[in-house]
Amino acid sequence: MAKILLITNEKNFNLYILESVKKDIDKVRDNKAVKRIKTSIGRLAERIPNKPEHWESIKSCENLFELKIKPYRLGCYKKENNILILHFWRVQKNMSKQKRADIEKACKIAQEVKDEFERLVRRK
After folding, report:
1. Angle at the Cα of 40 from the Cα atoms of 89 and 110, rounded to 5 degrees
2. In what side-by-side order are the strands of the sheet with 55-57?
3. Is 76 exposed, middle or buried (0-12, 13-18, 19+ CB in 10 A)?
4. How far is CA 28 from CA 18, 20, 72, 75, in A?
5. Assign residue 115 a region: left if phi > 0, alpha if psi is -120 to 50, beta otherwise?
6. Residue 23's pLDDT band (boundaries 50, 70, 90)?
7. Which helix (H) or strand (E) segment is 5 a member of?
8. What does the pLDDT look like over 82-120, one tens digit per residue?
């Protein structure tokens, strides 16, 4: 059972993150990158990015989106006004097999935590 942490519920969206993703972000050594990631997460609570180069639907998995923060990606599951950040990875140039593997992993995690997340947001 994954531990889901509430980041914020004061703006337009209730934003949650898996504890394992938070730990992965905290392990990034580049302080500027960490600041960019946290700023983007904060903006996500206010609005969904309207540019596809920043926020793209993952077509192979329902309600799953990819938030692009160069050179990182956040896999996000969206249910109504609730967003769960469930996967974090670094993108490397010309590594399409790795990108596909990370997207498949995000889909798998989404399937594993979807019911628990939906029960959590239904109670709120």
Report:
1. 45
2. 4-8, 14-18, 82-90, 72-79, 64-69, 55-57
3. buried
4. 16, 13, 10, 17
5. alpha
6. very high
7. strand 4-8
8. 999 999 999 877 667 777 889 899 999 999 999 999 999
Amino acid identity, residue 54?
A: H
User: Is 16 within 8 Å of 5 (Cβ atoms)?
Assistant: yes
DSSP secondary structure letter of residue 37: H
Say how many CA atoms lie within 13 Å of 40 toward its Cβ. Answer: 23
Name the DSSP class of 10: S
Full set of structural domains in the chain with CATH: 4-123 (3.30.2310.20)
DSSP code for 77: E
For the chain, give the percent of residues with pLDDT over 90. Answer: 50
